[in-house]
Write a structure and sequence with these properties.
By secondary structure, the chain is α+β, with helices and mostly antiparallel strands. Helix content is about 45%, strand content about 10%. Helix 2 packs antiparallel against helix 3, helix 2 runs parallel beside helix 4 and helix 3 packs antiparallel against helix 4. The model has no long low-confidence stretch (mean pLDDT about 80).
Length: about 220
């Protein structure tokens, strides 16, 4: 039996048929399709764009996963953006509610003030026409032909409650002097920002804060 000499050509190298090795080689030649989205989504978490950040991070993570990549930055972006949203959204909602409430209160107070001015105008015109200020509720309507109150405005006395429910169109009115010869009056309207009437007073005629006031009849 002849023994063939071992030559360089007769030595066979083991073939690399490992599929995992091929996949790794292929992955090295392909860019991660979700990498850019993951970076952008992560950055958005720190610039106040968490809503968009969590979306971009999630899309980037999915693209990377489908392509066989592990996109840790995108995963971190998902979590960080989600945490920021859980913290920021309630705070923003609270700020919005407080701002809206404040704006609404100021608007309602301005409306109540304009209602009070209309009562003042009616009372002053009534005094010029009749020679004295109103001392009856009817004086603001049927008794004052020259300048009646706008429709919907209500005159209240101290026995009736003025509050945030009726404060836009209801006014407290009291007069000074004698019945049938009122020499002045006090007009109070609701302050929606402080929920009281302590600082919302208009004096007419000879009335001051020290005058003796009587309820309108």
């Amino acid at each position: 039996m002849k023994i063939q000499p071992v030559t360089k050509n007769t030595v066979q190298k083991p073939q690399q048929n490992n599929e995992q090795t091929k996949q790794e080689q292929n992955m090295k030649s392909v860019d991660d399709p979700g990498r850019t989205l993951g970076i952008v989504g992560f950055v958005f978490a720190f610039v106040g764009l968490s809503i968009f950040g969590v979306i971009l991070s999630a899309v980037g993570y999915h693209k990377s996963k489908v392509a066989g990549f592990k996109n840790g930055l995108a995963l971190a972006g998902i979590w960080i953006n989600a945490i920021f949203l859980l913290l920021i959204i309630p705070i923003l909602a609270m700020i919005t509610i407080v701002s809206y409430t404040g704006i609404t209160a100021k608007a309602n107070t301005s409306y109540a003030e304009s209602t009070a001015f209309s009562v003042q105008t009616t009372a002053e015109v009534y005094q010029v026409d009749k020679g004295h200020y109103p001392d009856e509720i009817s004086d603001f309507v049927s008794g004052n032909i020259l300048s009646p109150l706008p429709s919907g405005v209500t005159i209240l006395n101290r026995s009736q409650e003025l509050n945030g429910l009726n404060g836009r169109t209801s006014i407290l009115y009291q007069y000074t002097g004698e019945f049938g010869n009122a020499t002045g009056g006090r007009i109070e309207y609701w302050d929606f920002t402080t929920s009281d009437i302590s600082n919302k007073v208009i004096y007419i005629g000879d009335a001051t804060q020290y005058s003796q006031f009587k309820d309108i009849q």
